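Hi, here's the filled form for the chain we discussed.

Project: internal
Contact: R.S.
Residues: 479
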Amino acid sequence: MTKFPKGFLWGGATAANQLEGAYNEGGKGLSVPDALPGGTERFDITNQPDFNWEIDTKKYTYPNHDGIDYYHRFREDIALFAEMGFKAYRFSIAWSRIFPQGDELTPNEEGLAFYDKVIDECLKYNIEPVITISHYELPLNLVTTYGGWKNKKLIEFYARFSETVLNRYHAKVKYWMTFNEINSALHFPVMSQGLVASNGANDMQNVYQAWHNQFVAGAMAVKIGHELDPDLQIGCMILYATTYSYNSDPINQMATLEQNQEFNHFCGDVQVRGEYPTYTNRLMQKYGFKFSDLETTPEELALLKANPVDYIGFSYYMSATVDETHVAQDSAQGNLIGGVKNPYLKASDWGWQIDPTGLRIALNELYQRYQKPLFIVENGFGAKDEADEDKFVNDDYRIDYLRSHIEAMADAINDGVNLMGYTPWGCIDLVSASTGQMSKRYGFIYVDLNDEGQGTLNRFKKKSFSWYKEVIKTNGRKL
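And the returned structure, exactly as it came back:
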């Protein structure tokens, strides 16, 4: 088996809104996920035309409010990550902990001090912090007052936020990412852009305008970071789903090309290459507008060109299959996107199709396209883990999933891909972004908490904990 390079960043990944809890402590303001109800219908609820962001605890549950209480237990959790041997820990900074309303001129010192402690705790164990500046954590006020990312004012607010955290932490944190899964807005703009039906999500011009504003804001973060320290590594982060045609019908082949361009490649092309791709107008014309209809300036386009990202972070959970000819009989679920069922693949409890070869393809496609380092910052297996009376989970299915994907990574490295690291998602059980559930578990560490918010919150090591510890210890040689 191919050896992983020396210094490979083995670790795990989480997001502030899904595990911290303490949603109204430490001066924190409300964020978009704080107003999202729990449960599998959370996106259906937010997309109702009369959805108004009011928190109604009599009608809904809000699992993000409490998360897994990481805010108070982060030292315990990071110690467990260190026991596994983590070389890196990817986490995010909750924007509304630093700027509670998002538009203040001065930051909340209590929020900054919290992340000082988290970063220092990582460094105590020689764990590299990998920080996502904005991970589905838009301050709610920026949605209710400004309409979300379609408003260009948010560029200024994000620039102030990113400058604040980069200034504060750059001496201790080398690896950064600007926006989490930025391309997910194609299907669910509520999470990253703050757009729902009631404030314009169904008009794709708003989504593309919001993307442009985020591209500009991200380029400003790259510029700020590199001016502080040219050695800082600031990447983008996209959701990647290797996409196949259901059959060789040219209609499906063309549909697959278009889906790849719009979903897998568009946001990366702009952030990595620093300019809009040649197919931009064709994508937009599908929705009845063109690039010149967006609010852009020559200065913004020059900023994009001058400040491309240093690496490509991406999530990979499953592949997708396209069938425009409607030959396929069954549909499939996925990480915010679905498609038709691929008859050659098995699926998880949530219908996500398991495809490690698709990861090798993704790595080759991305590296050949951009020739920049890649970083798998999310990958994992969500399952209904059954704990025994001792709270032990025998999760061989998770080990099998991760093993096959790590083997695919090794094959891609052998193909010539420059891969920096691997931080599987939800290294400790947390609240699912797509369903708002605790029962959809990814972690190496079991958290005693159910979908109704009941449990001790105690942490227990799953079987995969000791397995992954050995993987890291041997730098991927022992799987």
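Let me know if anything looks off before we file it.
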